[in-house]
Amino acid sequence: MCCYRIRRPAGICCCVAPLLMVTIYADYGDEPEDEFIPLPASLACAYYDLEMDSVEDDIIFYNSRLPQQARIVELGCGSARVGSKLLGDGRRVIGLDISIDMLRKARDRNLPGLQVVGMDMTGFAFNSSFDAVIIPYNSLNLLIEKQHIKQCLTACRQHLQPNGLFIAQIFVPTQEFISQGKKSFQFQIHEMKPDGRLIKEILKEYQAESQTIIVEERYRVRPAGNNAGPADYNNIYRVGALLANDWLQLIAESGFSVKNCYEDFSCTPFGTTDSSRLLVEAVSDSK
């Protein structure tokens, strides 16, 4: 069996009858591995917004659960996609993140009632207390050590008023994911402006011993015009993958009473299906 990989020399425009170079391999296994460039932080921001700006289900959910006139802390705020949409009904939001590029995009929104600061979620500190703390879109999973998770949760409880509201969206591995080889592959296609496409590939591998998942996100940029060639980037990181009961135990041990657990933003009780989404709604115990 022969395999062919066709390459166009750099600088050759496809509209001038390019000379193509063909590399012939004896077998697919002989083909070279794809080469990826580490994803720059600035592009990570742009691609995050491209992927997430149209997502609204979680924003509708938070707006339905948060009280009016509330002072809210959002951990892992990113570009303030969520926090910027919670400012109605007299609410004020302080967003925390450690990404300078994300915080810059959040500040560029320039919205009254929205403040963003650079702080680590395991050691944030304010001189005042708040009505609610939210941790959207699996940001809590970025903490892989139980000690760090409890530090974060304890800081959340310490900054809440008595009976203050805590809401978090958490990823949990499904039984199907654990049983089927502990690996998964997904891809998404996003249209880029003014033209072209971004192909995002997501590879996950479950590590049972550490209860973590190694995630590799691959971004294949495919411009439609002739002025720029394709580019391939990747980002590899590890996330916590505790089971639902482990998360609930850590939340309870940190001084919260869990009130509701959902598996989707329509408030379906968690456990109805084999869901990877755990939405926890809890209140801080009296100090």
Unreliable runs, pLDDT <50, ≥5 residues? 1-20
- Sum up the overall morphology in one term: globular
Give the biggest sheet: 7 strands, mixed
Superfamily (CATH H level) name of the largest domain: Vaccinia Virus protein VP39
User: Could you say how many structural domains there are in total?
Assistant: 2
What does this protein look like?
There is one protein chain. The chain is α/β, with parallel strands linked by helices and 287 residues long. It folds into 2 domains: 55-172 and 243-284, Rossmann fold, CATH 3.40.50; 175-240, S-adenosyl-L-methionine-dependent methyltransferases, CATH 2.20.130. It is built from 6 helices and 14 strands. The protein has a 7-stranded mixed beta sheet, with helices on both faces. Residues 1-20 have low confidence and may be disordered.
Features:
alpha/beta, single chain, disordered N terminus, Rossmann fold, 6 helices, 287 residues, S-adenosyl-L-methionine-dependent methyltransferases, globular, 2 domains, 7-stranded mixed beta sheet, 5-stranded mixed beta sheet
Can you give me a brief rundown of this structure?
The chain has 287 residues and is an alpha/beta fold. Helix content is 20%, strand content 36%.
Q: Topology, please?
A:
Blueprint: E1 3-7, E2 21-25, E3 37-38, H1 41-52, H2 57-65, E4 71-75, E5 92-97, H3 100-107, E6 114-118, E7 130-135, H4 146-158, E8 160-171, H5 175-179, E9 183-191, E10 197-207, E11 212-222, E12 231-240, H6 244-253, E13 256-262, E14 277-284
Parallel strand pairs: 3-12, 4-5, 4-7, 5-6, 7-8
Antiparallel strand pairs: 1-2, 8-14, 9-10, 10-11, 11-12, 13-14
